Each structure stands twice: as structure tokens, then as C-alpha cells.
Amino acid sequence: MCGRFSLATEQPILQDQFDFIFNEELDYRYNIAPSQNILVIGSNGQERVGTKMQWGLVPPWSKDTKIGYKMINARAETLDEKVSFKQPFKKKRCLILSDGFYEWKKQGKEKQPYRFIMKDRRPFAFAGLWECWDKGDKPLYTCTIITTTPNELTKDVHDRMPVILPPSEYDLWLDRDAQDTDKLKTLLVPFNDQLMDVYSVSSIVNSPKNESAKCLEPTNSL
């Protein structure tokens, strides 16, 4: 699964790299947790548009929003089978920006957190889905991160990893008219481990209350 990540890259760099419109100011985020608002990029058919959505997908048919806590991730293998993900997979795909994600490895009685990043230290995009829930006082926009099997780098720490899309596939993923799910599923594969790096971080990331640059600092290498 992917249950914690960061986005502490300067906003102009993000907008230049991912070429999207966004009229708000972003805060540096070092320890993003489920149920929090995160940066999501979609398409209006002509341009990429950034917005903030709550992490944890709430299907439109849900009676309340609590289901979102169980829907922070969606398995790539069953997207077109699960009622919660089938429709957004066809029409409501998005990019979720990050510059690193955390996973925990059990070591004895403790769990050691690790941070996975790109070797070039540049931000990247998770494949995501979004939905709108309108049974409250105002529409609630939520999203989920798609996961897949691990690559050679991540498998020593966890048996799943988030789907990281190569830039060449952003437009296809965001294209609302692209509804060939078999073709889309070919994008949902483990990212090239040769382009990634990993290092251990402090256990302060265990608590989402800790939100500082110290979360990103390395301890010992894997």
C-alpha cells in the first residue's frame, strides 16, 4: 500500500515540470497522511488543472464519508472489477504529485520507515482516481492512489508500491475520452527501479502529527 508521502518541492518547479494551472499557494508537505487534502492534477480537455482533494476515495453511492479511510489505495489488478473504482477508472483519472513516499519494514519488534525517491531528486506522479460525493452540505472531492506489485528496489520493504507514471503517459492517463481499460491497465506496472533510490528515515514519520523537514532526513542507508 501507499499510506504516507511528501510533496516539499517548490511550487514553480512543480508547475513547470507538470505543466498545470493552479491558482492557490501550496505549503511544503513532509508527511502527508490519509484524509488530508492533497494536490491532484486533472484535465479539462484542453489544459491540465490542479486542485486539492481529500485523500481517501468516497464513492457517490456511499451513505457517509467514513468509507474513505479504507479507500486510500486501489489495486491495479482489480480496478475494472470493483464497483468503487470501475467508473472512475474509465472517466475520472488523475495525477497525484509527490517527491517521495514512505514504507515500513518490520525489523524485530520495530518497524523501520524508509523513503523512496527518484535518483534525480525530482518530483513524480502517482496514478490516481477521483470522485465527487454530493450528499453533504457541499460537494466533497476525494481521490485514491493506485498500487501495483513491487519492483526490485521496493520489494525488500513492502509487497506493494504506488503506480508511478512516466511523463510520456500523463496525457493518455488524463484523457477523458480514453476508456479502453485494457490499454490503460498496461500503464499500471512497477516503475523502473534503476531510476529510484531509497534511504531510511526517523521514526518521527510514524505519527502524521509530525510535519517538518526532519521527516525527510536520512538516517542509515538500506
From TrEMBL:
Taxonomy, superkingdom? Bacteria
Entries under Gene3D superfamilies matching the protein:
SOS response associated peptidase-like (3.90.1680.10)
Looking up Pfam families in the UniProt record yields:
SRAP (PF02586)
Keywords recorded for this protein, A-Z: Covalent protein-DNA linkage, DNA damage, DNA-binding, Hydrolase, Lyase, Protease
Q: State its Enzyme Commission number(s).
A: 3.4.-.-
Per the record's keyword annotation, is Disulfide bond included, yes or no?
no
Matches recorded under InterPro entries: SRAP, SRAP-like
What is the top EC class of this enzyme, as a single word?
Answer: hydrolase
Which family does this protein fall into? Answer: Belongs to the SOS response-associated peptidase family.
Official protein name in the record = Abasic site processing protein
Source organism per entry reads Metabacillus rhizosphaerae
